[in-house]
Write a structure and sequence with these properties.
Helix content: 40-55%
Order of helices and strands: HEHEHEHEEHEHHEEHHEHHHH
Number of domains: 2
CATH superfamily of the largest domain: Spore Coat Polysaccharide Biosynthesis Protein SpsA, Chain A
Radius of gyration: 21 Å
Largest sheet: 5 strands, mixed
CATH topology of the largest domain: Spore Coat Polysaccharide Biosynthesis Protein SpsA, Chain A
CATH class of the largest domain: Alpha Beta
Strand content: 15-25%
CATH architecture of the largest domain: Alpha-Beta Complex
């Protein structure tokens, strides 16, 4: 009997599943168990894990526990984009599936994404619905950053004013939703499209790299397609919430990545005006929160705000000195420093 999936998919394809890990071993273990239990009757796949130098003594244990998985240890905590690109450099697949380590997958959503990518060459990036442990769905409709939606308040106003227009544009009644961008936790892309956009942008250390990738695909005429009828489990948490210091670092990088995105994709006066607005909004709000952090330093959440404010002051000073919006942790920033030294 002919397998319907095989008939639709056509030729036997290899998918390279690429996961970037940093101290998320328990989540990664669950993710890998879900992957290695998928049969290869409709497609072949390999799993590549790039560990961003967790340096906690667990790496070798996973080498022994999962011999069928290709593990590589990065030179440092070089960020998500760098880890993904390193994984691709080792990949043999016709298609790449980038996953967060805190995801649980099954065969069906992978087949659905493969089918969409094969049947529609203009689908530059494909993704699927993401559910948490309680069955709640992640946000499906996402807009590219613009002056109108740079901040939470302006974004809410923009969506309220353009509610009918957005509902028509992002018709969620159909199985496929064409959002502006999809979360980097589940990204399916062909090798051909990946080469077209020159891979993940290593200007970003963490956050906004997924928006950037989708933007590059969109600029070349590719569509960002999300199958809302197929889903994977995404259990948020991971290394970004280990402690106050780590949380302060990641929350600082959220803001830095916004500056990097604006610098990369906004033009002319709009770019400079938007950068000014972000700096003004961030410093004014974070300054007030930092004052509370000084008084209430014994409360971790308030102490966190003080650390974030200090991190941002340091970032803005160095941004002026270096004439660059890149994070200290950005691989492209490090390369630039080496070239200029």
């Amino acid at each position: 009997m002919t397998n319907n999936n095989s008939t639709i998919i056509g030729e036997y394809n290899t998918i390279s599943v690429i996961i970037v890990n940093y101290k998320c071993w328990k989540d990664l273990e669950n993710c890998l168990f879900s992957l290695i239990n998928i049969d290869k009757s409709d497609f072949n796949y390999e799993v590549i894990v790039v560990d961003n130098k967790s340096n906690d003594g667990i790496f070798n244990n996973f080498l022994n526990k999962f011999p069928e998985v290709k593990f590589v240890e990065n030179s440092g905590n070089n960020g998500f984009s760098n880890g993904c690109n390193k994984g691709v450099s080792l990949a043999k697949g016709d298609y790449f599936l980038f996953l967060n380590p805190d995801t649980i997958v099954s065969k069906e959503p992978i087949i659905s994404m493969l089918k969409l990518a094969k049947e529609h060459s203009d689908y530059g990036i494909v993704s699927c619905n993401q559910l948490n442990k309680k069955g709640g769905s992640e946000k499906i409709i996402r807009l590219f950053p613009s002056l109108q939606n740079l901040f939470g308040i302006t974004r809410a106003i923009f969506k309220s004013i353009h509610k009918k227009e957005l509902s028509k544009r992002f018709d969620i009644s159909n199985g496929i939703v064409f959002s502006d961008w999809v979360s980097g936790s589940v990204v399916f892309i062909s090798r051909k499209w990946f080469k077209k956009v020159d891979g993940w942008n290593e200007d970003y250390w963490m956050y906004s790299e997924d928006i950037d990738l989708c933007k590059k695909v969109s600029k070349l005429g590719g569509k960002i397609a999300l199958n809302k009828n197929a889903h994977i489990i995404h259990n948020h948490g991971g290394a970004s919430r280990l402690n106050v210091k780590t949380a302060a670092l990641t929350k600082t990088e959220v803001i830095i990545s916004k500056h990097v995105y604006v610098n990369n994709h906004f033009k002319g006066f709009l770019k400079y005006f938007s950068q000014f607005l972000i700096v003004f909004q961030v410093l004014s709000t974070k300054f007030i929160l930092a004052l509370f952090g000084i008084v209430l330093f014994f409360i971790p959440k308030m102490n966190l705000q003080l650390i974030i404010f200090i991190n941002l002051i340091n970032y803005y000073v160095y941004a002026l000195v270096r004439n660059s919006w890149l994070s200290d942790r950005s691989m492209n920033n490090k390369i630039g420093q080496i070239k200029n030294s």
